[in-house]
């Protein structure tokens, strides 16, 4: 082959060449343009037309010298044409073969040793002709030799048989935007100075783990009349058609992006200016923020300004620009999204040829948003995407929203009135626990038919009350015995003038007496508050004062300022207190009991719970889990924790038995397994860390009685599920969840054998509904991470502060049906899967979950900062690689970097916080890492802490 000309590859060509390497992320593909047409060509006609085209345009005679990094032009034409004759085949076999050929050719990587284009002509049977067109033509062009403009010109001349382009010099002039002049370099360095993140769409997996991706296309057509109406409105505001359309597309796509932020590439080409065909492309980087407080016109104008400014500084190549972003973000894939605007290529008006479909693929692109004109001057919007990177449903919903958005826009008289794209009608309600067809707010008390308090009363005082209620320290306490204790407590409270709506604090250890007080308060409509007796006295004092407790029931001499106390033994051992009962437990949404949880202000928050919400959980859970009075439950959870509420009320409402470990047994997983085997425990509910401990200590035969295991309050590890299936293959497995403010648990998922890598958070319990909202309280589409929110009967009444209920973190939103509903905004983040199940994706900064306990880091940080030697302190949840579970870590800086013993810090915190809030690991630094905004960089701090602590940490037992 005789070479008549050659020149070095430009930066983009080198990048495309590197992109063919299967070892780089989103690599192993060619920059390939594939299209499919119905045509009238026979083999000879096609060869003649292509030969003339190759004689005229040197790009059709260009191959790539990989060794010398040059593109070389051949003197002679080489035809890369294949003929596939299917004229004599049956229609069914023809269709099968076409699918095979289409898949093969659309993703082919053309060999560098020949000119990088190819035509495949498929001759069809007569009964498959299309409007007298008897063949299909597959065209392939590699971006190493041509850009989008060149492909448009080549196809136009091939199909129309006449020149549409004036041939200039055969020697291609390198475009100026590869010279990297210093002014343009400085522009981009300044422009990208504050970029610290890349576009994050709902990727199916980390883009840097995807190799040799497979690309597919979805697209829509926007009719000419609609588009012209939008363009005319844009012109009134000095907006180019490209700018209006691009802004509309980005406004929609940003709804799927993290923080509604997009950083994307936009290809540019000088081919039109130089009147040369080839690869004269580079790209610019553009930012877009879909800020709902800024009008559409302002955003479109800003986009237009940014693009035009960027195009004035193109001597700094896109490849160099990409290197800057790699250095800034520490990511290999920095621009995974591109917007390719082909409106300047003109309409694809071909004679005797009908375009069918196509697809492009580009190395290191996960999504290419392509805009072009059809033969009828309609607008084609195509999304070419890597299947391994994005779900097909996400793409179809994006395009559907684009179509609706542009349709709505075209009906306006002015772009000033363009509203943000509304996704309410796009979001499914599959995570609802409501009957199918019911709107989100339709839940009523009558739907909950089981008054669990009346059921408990019946078991305590009915005819079958000799059944075992509690098992404690080898004692089996019958419902009758427990009922007598409950009656004595109720009568004693009445004698003390503690009545409906008054508050009793239960300051007792985990014991049958604690349970008796809880039941007594519930049956007599007295608000009860379980106190964590492991908390410092000052914290207990705050909790009692905040909820304005009228009485504290204790088991040892304690002095709480301003609070009346009575010893539980004084009640139960008093023979003068009656054991008969007269009470009528109410079944409503009035305050029923209080639970404290960690607060972001540095003090614990008091959540006001009610018996209607509790009844919903108890009734739905007992029914779904198919439990009866023959079941035996295990009270493994501390009684001040919300999961314990079901262990007690679930068991008592059924007339079932509840195993209560003694204080010594509470901390021993070996004792748990012995108790399970001894008493044939059938139901276990706890946080995952406790399940992990149980499995580590139990013998498989000790757990054979378990028919159901549920875990909640923290991330459920697939490894635990795998071990459970080995130990208790007969058991049903559930993940359960929902913060204290949504009552015990309000979302769940029965774990199936198909749940291997990810255990779903699940779907709402009956009479509740979950939502995923962005920062503007808009509903997130499927797969988009946002704040998890819940509405429904399970909602708590609010927070109690100084005796008054407030609604902090509760809000009113509009649900997808347009109704206003009250929700709780959790500190959790997640997304809807396409089956309606929610997948948990982490927590908002400042909130941690350690061994199932929700902790606001501010509580620890504020307390630790009061130590006289501590200047700065941050609390983190770090993953211990030995146990693959989270630990509470304190990172601190001292005054003048003086050493401080971790024992002194631990003791200091123990005087202020409960044991659950005491860090198990400590790390002293000279200074905290900071973000560009001079704030403490918690993400970097966590990485640093995990690196140092688990190599050289101060053990919690030091």
UniProtKB/TrEMBL annotation:
Gene3D superfamilies named among the record's database cross-references: 3.30.300.30, Chloramphenicol acetyltransferase-like domain (3.30.559.10), N-terminal domain of ligase-like (3.40.50.12780), Nonribosomal peptide synthetase, condensation domain (3.30.559.30)
Gene Ontology MF, one: phosphopantetheine binding
Record-given protein name: Amino acid adenylation domain-containing protein
AMP-dependent synthetase/ligase domain ranges (all copies): 465-800
Keywords noted in UniProt: Ligase
GO cellular component: cytoplasm
InterPro entries in alphabetical order: AA_adenyl_dom, AMP-bd_C_sf, AMP-binding_CS, AMP-dep_synth/lig_dom, ANL_N_sf, CAT-like_dom_sf, Condensation_dom
Example of a GO biological process term: amino acid activation for nonribosomal peptide biosynthetic process
Organism for this UniProt entry: Pseudoalteromonas arctica
Residue stretches making up the Condensation domain: 35-411
Pfam hit, one: Condensation
NCBIfam families on file: AA-adenyl-dom (TIGR01733)
């Amino acid at each position: 082959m005789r070479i008549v000309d050659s020149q070095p590859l430009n930066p983009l060509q080198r990048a495309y060449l590197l992109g063919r390497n299967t070892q780089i992320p989103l690599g192993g593909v060619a920059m390939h343009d594939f299209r499919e047409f119905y045509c009238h060509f026979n083999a000879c006609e096609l060869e003649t037309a292509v030969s003339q085209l190759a004689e005229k345009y040197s790009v059709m005679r260009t191959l790539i010298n990989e060794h010398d990094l040059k593109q070389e032009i051949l003197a002679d034409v080489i035809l890369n044409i294949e003929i596939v004759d299917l004229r004599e085949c049956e229609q069914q076999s023809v269709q099968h073969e076409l699918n095979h050929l289409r898949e093969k050719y659309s993703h082919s990587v053309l060999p560098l040793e020949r000119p990088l284009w190819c035509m495949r002509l498929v001759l069809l049977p007569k009964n498959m002709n299309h409007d007298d067109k008897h063949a299909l033509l597959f065209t392939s062009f590699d971006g190493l030799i041509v850009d989008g403009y060149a492909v448009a010109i080549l196809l136009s001349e091939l199909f129309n048989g006449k020149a549409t382009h004036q041939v200039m010099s055969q020697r291609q002039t390198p475009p100026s935007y590869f010279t990297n002049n210093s002014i343009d370099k400085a522009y981009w360095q300044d422009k990208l100075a504050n970029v610290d993140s890349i576009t994050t769409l709902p990727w199916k997996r980390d883009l840097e783990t995807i190799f040799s991706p497979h690309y597919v296309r979805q697209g829509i057509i926007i009719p000419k009349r609609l588009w012209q109406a939008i363009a005319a409105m844009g012109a009134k505001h000095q907006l180019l058609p490209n700018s209006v359309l691009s802004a509309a597309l980005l406004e929609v796509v940003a709804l799927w992006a993290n923080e509604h932020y997009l950083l994307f590439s936009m290809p540019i080409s000088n081919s039109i200016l130089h009147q040369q065909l080839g690869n004269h492309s580079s790209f610019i980087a553009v930012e877009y923020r879909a800020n709902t407080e800024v009008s559409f016109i302002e955003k479109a104008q800003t986009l237009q300004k940014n693009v035009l400014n960027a195009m004035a500084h193109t001597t700094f190549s896109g490849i160099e620009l990409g290197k800057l972003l790699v250095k800034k973000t520490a990511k290999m894939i920095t621009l995974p999204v591109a917007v390719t605007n082909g409106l300047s290529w003109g309409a694809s008006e071909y004679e005797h040829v009908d375009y069918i479909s196509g697809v492009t693929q580009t190395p290191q692109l996960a999504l290419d948003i392509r805009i072009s004109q059809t033969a009828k001057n309609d607008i084609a919007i195509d999304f070419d995407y890597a299947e391994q990177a994005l779900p097909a449903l996400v793409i179809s919903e994006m395009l559907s929203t684009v179509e609706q958005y542009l349709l709505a826009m075209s009906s306006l008289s002015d772009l000033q009135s363009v509203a943000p794209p509304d996704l309410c009608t796009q979001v499914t309600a599959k995570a609802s626990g409501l009957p199918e067809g019911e709107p989100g707010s339709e839940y009523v008390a009558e739907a909950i038919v089981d008054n669990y308090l009346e059921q408990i009363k019946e078991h305590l005082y009915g005819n079958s009350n000799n059944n075992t209620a509690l098992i404690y320290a080898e004692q089996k306490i019958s419902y009758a015995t427990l009922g007598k204790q409950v009656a004595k407590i109720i009568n004693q409270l009445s004698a003390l003038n503690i009545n409906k709506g008054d508050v009793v604090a239960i300051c007792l250890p985990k014991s049958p007496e604690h349970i008796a007080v809880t039941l007594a308060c519930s049956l007599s409509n007295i608000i009860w508050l379980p106190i964590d007796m492991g908390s410092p006295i000052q914290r207990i004092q705050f909790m009692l004062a905040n909820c304005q407790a009228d009485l504290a029931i204790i088991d040892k001499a304690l002095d709480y300022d301003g609070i009346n106390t009575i010893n539980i033994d004084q009640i139960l051992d008093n023979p003068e207190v009656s054991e008969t009962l007269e009470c009528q437990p109410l079944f409503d949404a009035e305050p029923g009991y209080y639970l404290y949880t960690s607060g972001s202000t540095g003090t614990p928050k008091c959540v006001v719970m009610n018996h209607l919400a509790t009844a919903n959980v108890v009734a739905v859970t007992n029914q779904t889990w198919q439990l009866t009075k023959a079941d035996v439950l295990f009270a493994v959870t501390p009684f001040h924790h919300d999961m314990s509420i079901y262990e007690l009320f679930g068991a008592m409402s059924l007339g079932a038995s509840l195993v209560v470990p003694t204080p010594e047994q509470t901390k021993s997983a070996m004792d748990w397994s012995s108790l399970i085997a001894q008493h044939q425990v059938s139901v276990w509910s706890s946080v995952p860390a406790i399940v992990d401990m149980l499995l580590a200590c139990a013998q498989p035969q000790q757990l054979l009685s378990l028919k159901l295991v549920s875990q909640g309050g923290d991330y459920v590890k697939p490894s635990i599920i795998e071990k459970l299936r080995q130990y208790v293959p007969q058991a049903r497995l559930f993940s359960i969840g929902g913060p204290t403010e949504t009552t015990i648990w309000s979302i769940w998922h029965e774990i199936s054998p198909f749940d291997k890598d990810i255990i779903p958070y699940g779907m709402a319990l009956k009479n509740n509904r979950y939502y995923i909202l962005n920062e503007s309280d808009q509903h997130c589409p499927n797969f988009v991470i946002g704040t998890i929110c819940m509405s429904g009967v399970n909602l708590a009444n609010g927070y109690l502060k100084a005796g008054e209920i407030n609604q902090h973190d509760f809000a009113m939103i509009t649900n997808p049906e347009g109704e206003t509903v009250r929700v709780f905004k959790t500190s959790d983040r997640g997304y809807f899967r396409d089956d309606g199940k929610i997948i948990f994706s982490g927590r908002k900064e400042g909130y941690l979950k350690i061994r199932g306990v929700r902790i606001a880091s501010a509580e620890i940080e504020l307390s630790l900062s009061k130590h006289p030697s501590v200047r700065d302190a941050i609390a983190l949840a770090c993953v211990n690689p030995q146990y693959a579970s989270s630990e509470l870590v304190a990172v601190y800086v001292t005054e003048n970097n003086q050493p401080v013993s971790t024992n002194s810090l631990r003791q200091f915190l123990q005087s202020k916080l409960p044991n659950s809030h005491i860090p198990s690991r400590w790390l002293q630094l000279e200074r905290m890492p900071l973000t560009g905004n001079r704030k403490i960089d918690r993400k970097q701090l966590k990485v640093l802490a995990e690196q140092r602590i688990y190599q050289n940490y101060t053990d919690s037992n030091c």
